[in-house]
Every structure is written in structure tokens, then in C-alpha cells.
Design brief:
Blueprint (H helix, E strand, L loop, with lengths): L1 H36 L4 H24 L3 E4 L13 E4 L6 H6 L5 E6 H4 L5 H6 L3 E3 L2 H13 L3 E4 L18 H9 L3 E8 L18 E7 L10 H26 L1
Parallel strand pairs: 1-7, 2-5, 2-6, 3-4, 3-5
Antiparallel strand pairs: 6-7
């Protein structure tokens, strides 16, 4: 019986990877059409985000039906239609962006240059107005434009994914500089998961225990900081503390 259950999980997992590959090809195809029909500008970016949001929702639903992924996204309902927020989240997995994109139609994410330049998916992110992270100086202007367009700007201030079972790494101050420049409130988001899949060092094809469970929490919102070094530093420290304490509390509840 155990062997049959393990075989079923294995088949479902790898069939789901194939299904997601097909979905992402359709995602890129839709972005390609948008780029051919519309010039670069707010309208194309808005439609790109609309397309990405609905495909992300379909992807998460597909993984749920396959018994791979269970997501509790109710915590994000309160901010779904808000504009001009800087969102800051911990980063346990490469699935984080997909899951958040499935819940937040106004989302724009700051991504690594290596992802932004990929021939697949990268073109979709560019069409949707996602922002390439080369340096803080190059990040400020497009981030400001996105917030002015009514988007929610998502950053993972660790700069990379956490290792499974480890607390988030030290936070980089870029999100605080953007919040100061744009006078935007900062909304910390806590991503809680029981799965090590696609955490730092986890291979893409290695099957994790199933189902993978994710729950999203909103930490207390932080007001826009003043434009001085001390306020920016305090914002980084407070945000880091809120998310690390949140992870510690959820871990204690589960033990």
C-alpha cells in the first residue's frame, strides 16, 4: 500500500511539472502577442499583469487539483485592491512569486537580472512591467514609476532564498530606500510553508513530501519612513524583526 501511494505521488508530481511547463509556454505565448500588438507603455504593462495574474491563478489551481500544492491566501484579501504599497516578504522557495502573483492582480516584483533575461518567462515578466535588479540606483526609477501606476511592488530583501529550516538571512536596505523615495507604506508579508521544495539548494526535479502547504500572513503595516538614514535603518530592522518573530511563532505553534 505504501509503495502504491509513493508511486502515485511520484507520478502526480512529475506529471504536474510537465503540466506547468505547458502552462508557462502558454504564458509566454500570450506575452508575445501583447508585445506584437501594443507598444511599450502603461497599457501593455497593465494587460501583461492581468494575463500573468490569471495564468498564475490557473497554475496554483492546477497544482491543487493534482494534490501537489495547498495554499491559504485568505490573509492577502485585505490588500488585494490597494495601490502604492511596498510589499516585503521572506523567501523560502522559488514558488513564492507564483503564489503571491496568483492572489494580487496589481503585483510587480523586483527580480534578479538572471531571471529577467531568461528567454522563457523573462519576456513575460518584462511585458508585465516586472523590474530587473541590477543595482539600487537603477532600481529606484522603475520602482517609482510602478508605484505611480497603482501597482504593489514586491521585494525579497534577503536577496536569495532561505535554506529549508533556516531563518531568513539579513535584510538588504533597498526596500527602505524605495519607501523613503516614494513615501510609500511598507507591508510585510510572512510566507509560511511546510515544504523544502525549491528552497536554496533543493533541485527542481527532486520530489518533496506532498502536498506542499503554504499559508500567507500579513504582519503589521509600517508607515512611510522619513527621508533620513536613521529612519531607513529603523524600517529595515523593524521589518526584519517582524518577519523573523512571525516565523518563530508559527514554528512554535507547529511543535
Amino acid at each position: 500500500m505504501f509503495r502504491l501511494s509513493a508511486l502515485s505521488a511520484c507520478v502526480r508530481f512529475y506529471a504536474s511539472l510537465l503540466g506547468i511547463a505547458v502552462i508557462f509556454l502558454a504564458l509566454d505565448a500570450g506575452a508575445f502577442v501583447l508585445r506584437r500588438l501594443l507598444p511599450e507603455g502603461p497599457r501593455r504593462r497593465r494587460l501583461g499583469r492581468f494575463w500573468l495574474y490569471h495564468v498564475a491563478r490557473f497554475s496554483v489551481r492546477f497544482l491543487y487539483i493534482m494534490g501537489i500544492l495547498e495554499c491559504d491566501l485568505r490573509g492577502l484579501a485585505a490588500i488585494r485592491q490597494e495601490t502604492g504599497l511596498v510589499l516585503v516578504a521572506n523567501h523560502p522557495s522559488r514558488l513564492d512569486s507564483l503564489i503571491l502573483a496568483a492572489a494580487l492582480p496589481r503585483l510587480v516584483c523586483v527580480t534578479k537580472a538572471s531571471i529577467w533575461e531568461r528567454p522563457t518567462l523573462g519576456s513575460t515578466l518584462r511585458t508585465a512591467g516586472y523590474i530587473r535588479h541590477d543595482s539600487l540606483l537603477k532600481l529606484i526609477a522603475p520602482a517609482t514609476d510602478s508605484l505611480k501606476e497603482g501597482c504593489q511592488l514586491l521585494l525579497f530583501p534577503e536577496g536569495t532564498r532561505s535554506r529549508a529550516g533556516a531563518e531568513p538571512g539579513a535584510f538588504q536596505p533597498g526596500f527602505a530606500a524605495i519607501a523613503q523615495r516614494t513615501r510609500s507604506a511598507v507591508q510585510p508579508i510572512l510566507i509560511e510553508t511546510n515544504s523544502p521544495y525549491l528552497s536554496q539548494g533543493w533541485p527542481f526535479l527532486r520530489r518533496p513530501p506532498l502536498p506542499m502547504r503554504y499559508k500567507i500572513h500579513l504582519a503589521p503595516r509600517l508607515p512611510a519612513p522619513a527621508r533620513d538614514e536613521a529612519s531607513g535603518r529603523a524600517l529595515v530592522e523593524t521589518t526584519e524583526t517582524l518577519l523573523k518573530q512571525g516565523l518563530t511563532q508559527t514554528t512554535l505553534r507547529d511543535t
